[in-house]
Amino acid sequence: MATNYDVARIFLEIAEALELSGQDPYRVRAYRNAARTLLSLEEPLAEIRRRGELLSLPGIGESLAAKIAEILDSGRLRQHDELMEHFPPGVAAMMHVPGVGPRTAQTLFRELGLTSVEELEHAAREGRLRALKGFGAKTEANILQNIARLRTRRQRIPLARAYPLAQQVIHLLRAAAPVRDIEAAGSLRRMTEDVGDIDILVTSDDPAAVMAAVTRLPFVQRVLATGPTKTSVLSEQDVQVDVRVVAPENFGAALQYFTGSKEHNVKLRTLAVRQGLKLSEYGIFRGDTRLGGATEEEMYRPLGILMYPPELREDRGEIERGLAGVPPDFVEERHLRGDLHVHTNASDGRASLRAMVEAARERGFTYVAISDHSPARGNARGLSAARLRAQAREIRALNRELTDITILAASEVDIRRDGTLDYPDDVLAELDLCLASVHSAFNLSREEQTARLLRAIDSPFLDIIAHPTGRLVGTRDPIELDMRRVMTAAAAHEVALEINSWPERLDLNDAHILLARELGVPLVIDTDAHAPEHFDNLKFGVATARRGWATPADILNTIPLSQLLPRLRRNRLRKAA
Ligand SMILES: [Zn+2]
Ligand SMILES: [Zn+2]
Asked: Are residues 179 and 35 in the same domain?
């Protein structure tokens, strides 16, 4: 029986092939979105189909539902088979080598018969690419370098992929075996942007049943090892999942031990030794006497250390603060009162203005900024000035109707290559809030890129720089920036920098957040939601903020709108004028 992963993988390969063949980006995106939906499901598709509910899944219409059914029944899809003949997956893989892209990948396939990244590498090494128009020794060297970098990155799994997989493991094991406690440990629990593998800890009255259930998880490609209390499997996406059954009285000790980080645990153990104590995955001991280990707190208490949340356990000072008795005070989801970066189907979102506002309201937000794209983003149906104004009228009408949430007429304006913003000033002046971001020219030099952002920050209309580095975890490098200069300017102009919660982005990252706090840059945490369910991504942004030690006071959208607006640049200037 095809799993959710099988179906998602086929859709992703179709998306790649369509992109490669220069198809309509909307069609490409439809398959990507569908795959994303499927990967986030906790329940097997076959189950959902049995209930006749495939069509209720976001982004799944009649045609995709029929394709899902075909894959579930036969394990394959005719359309996919045909596409793969013309656009083998290896050709699509070449397209992802930075600097190659769809058109060049096609040329490499057509002209040189290359069908994989390996063949591309070989050809570049032999100097065979120069035969093509526009290719030279320098392009070949670049391609080789980019392939090498892709390889080292691929060994880690982005949180965006690992998190839903871990949730699925937890969900399926709960259903399939007598599980009491179950929790993901490891770097996933610390919410690092990528993880090496997935560690799950379980307590159970029947460990053998749990182990058996692990080997039968639907996405298992290979069982790497299985024993009475530990089983390791490899998922079809080559992610290793380790499941351990531990005794209930050791659960806290194991959770602490396997959550790490290594640096945190090494320091903790050193401190323990100095106090004549010993820490292990089985508990905390003085000589032969066990002092605790059923809960994580019991591992810290005898050491006289306040426990800090998993996201902070990187040995960046949390142990010293815990030792000094400084209680942790970090931003949590419940502190956020609004979302300042949300798309609708006016640009590349999937839901209407009303649906997005309703979803924000249901989450308990008291304000939400609607920030669709500007004209430069043709692919994303960026709004002309006229459409932007029409949307603002719609927002005003909705604001009159709704009493418990305030909608801001905003925009995510492209920062052009030269640093100017993608609307004329008179249009920008009409907005309640202006976000701006880089969506193009990612390859400028550090000097040029820094100058570009500094010029954007100079605009009196800019309030927030969204996803400031443009990176995509594991697939696109951050733009080159003198971050300290950009942040210093942002702080001086009171322009906020965003912590984008989109799990592929997590931008700013933890290191940048630490720097931003040091330099006094205002921060916001946004979801960049393109559909109602994307508000759930907030947890990733909050976790990243916590990894950067952000407190509620560091995050502007933890305060009520009445206090927030005067803190934003445009409103400050308006007041002064
Ligand atoms: Zn964006
Ligand atoms: Zn956006």
From this structure: no
Report d(CA 310, CA 294) in Å as an integer. Answer: 17
Distance 529 CA to ligand 2 centre (A): 7
Instruction: Find the CATH number of the domain harbouring 98.
Output: 1.10.150.20
Q: What's the total number of domains in the chain? A: 5
CA 528 / ligand 2 centre spacing (Å): 5
Ligand closest to 347 (CA) is: 2
Ligand 1 centre from 101 Cα, in Å? 20
pTM comes to 0.76
Binned at pLDDT 50, 70 and 90, residue 475 comes out as: confident
Q: What CATH number is given to the structural domain containing 416?
A: 3.20.20.140
Opening angle at CA 259, ends 256 and 262, nearest 5: 100
Name the residue among 415, 410, 474 with its Cα closest to residue 439: 415
For residue 328, being part of any structural domain is answered with no
CATH number at residue 30: 1.10.150.110
Within 124-184, strands assigned E span 157-158, 179-184
Distance of CA 528 from the midpoint of ligand 1 (Å):
7
pLDDT digits (tens, 9 = 90+) for 182-239: 999 999 999 999 999 999 999 999 999 999 999 989 888 888 888 899 999 988 778 8
Least confident of 117-121, 154-158, 306-310: 154-158
CA–CA dist 397, 399 (Å, integer): 5
Residue pLDDT, tens place only, 480-519 = 999 999 999 999 999 999 999 999 999 999 999 999 999 9
Q: Which of 150-164, 298-312, 448-462 has the lowest mean pLDDT?
A: 150-164
Q: Identify the nearest ligand to the CA of 537 by its number.
A: 2
Q: List the domain range (segments joined by +) for residue 296.
A: 250-323
